């Protein structure tokens, strides 16, 4: 090993020469609020990286620490000046500093080694576990695949959350928005989805990218710890642009995230990317645009705020075999104020995505968690992204809950209702109870099928409502111990064949009979 | 600030094109215009911006050549001749900086040519590190 290093050093010294070409430079005219006005820089391109160098000369030893270099991103090219946003410490830039063109459009280094790491908006590691070896430079802004290059979305992405996988199923390559007020469980759904991927076989397990935009660092640290505890960090990359970072980093973070995702998609793998949350990215972009003197529009957002999100989300796709057959599934998160889904940014993103999961604070406060409003939630891919087994057991669910919502107001008059209506209400109340799920406890697909089969066939009618989840876990334990082949058949075939259905029915009937006798 | 900078840029341009009494007439008209628009309080800022602009332009006219020591000047100037289109070799200001280790750095307002040993060593370090 040491011989190899010595040989490499010898070769470098023998071939040492400095033949760099002239570079175009500019001068900092003014700097304020993370935006720099630069004179010169002829021939600079939009979104080109520029490097700031201070007037003072550093020795070789002092310069070895490359983190001392501050970079900027060119966003405005005007008649007599160039405006760039600073990607780093704005305190280090002063009037009169030289600015050098790098000639590179913004790109980030990616490799397989990035899995399990926590990085910043420029894909630099920030978890203190050393450098990440580079395999490829991925462009942060890259055009999305065209229509011809795409394949239909037909493979499910299992979130492990019963309410979602049954009624709002997500497919690999889909964009499904998670929208709701603060504290309604949006991040929980996203993290549970990541954790649930460990139940997938390794060959088909998606790589997960979690992009934390404008979050508290303590929250991100907690998420990383939970993922590590659950063994999910092995296939996850966490990208953090914390609330204390400059607006430029918050703006860039989602694009860096999707660039990392594209590296894996280009290799034919499936990727799940979560943007938590895009409302903060929009606010950061608004801040930058106002400082760049771009004209403000509605709610002071710049006119191209739709394009900010559309070009990001269009990069999530399922591609055909000629491009590797991989996919990027996006779960963007948007925070609403007072449940207002008709505000500017929410309506923009709703129109871009292939469906939304709406989280209601009233449901959350009533204890229905996940607080999914089934009436307002939709998946435009629908059952094309469901297995046959799930389709069979979840078919009547959405309609049944819709009917229950209509009847819910009459519950207080239960003594005056006919028997059929009373039964409907009783059954639906148990369904709502069974759809509750603890956080950080995603269910594998086969258990979801068993649970939904139990509830849609009304096997729980004789049990108290508040016992439903206890009954469910007892059922799982019993079936795993006494008839694991039922679960295995569902898991491997992804269907509920008649034979398996009969076995399951018979098992549950025996279970219910014994449970009632206790 | 932007307005003052714009005025300063305009004044600089005029001062390059006009001279003598024409220049005097122009400045009087400019002052009248400022009074009409009630912008005379911008004058100190305009003057400051004009000074900075003049300094930048004068720096840009010539070339700054940074070498390790005086022994390297001749070789550096000879190497710079190949880039005479970008760097004005008739007006060269020489500075010494031991930190560059060897070679030279040439720069003017719009171009930078860094052929210092320091740059080569840092690039070698990056290659070895990766």
The CATH homologous superfamily of the largest domain in chain A is called P-loop containing nucleotide triphosphate hydrolases
Mean pLDDT reading of chain A? 91
Residue-averaged pLDDT of chain B, rounded?
Answer: 85
Sum up the overall morphology of chain B in one term.
Answer: elongated
Number of strands of chain B: 4
Radius of gyration of chain A using CA atoms only = 27 Å
Amino- and carboxy-terminal Cα gap of chain A? 69 Å
Low-confidence stretches of chain A: none
Cα distance, first to last residue of chain B? 45 Å
From the 3D coordinates, which CATH architecture of the largest domain in chain A would you assign?
3-Layer(aba) Sandwich
How many domains of chain B, as an integer?
A: 2
Numbering strands along the chain, what is their spatial order in the largest sheet of chain A?
8-14-13-15-16-12-17-18
Unreliable residue stretches of chain B = none
As a percent range, the share of strand residues of chain B is 15-25%
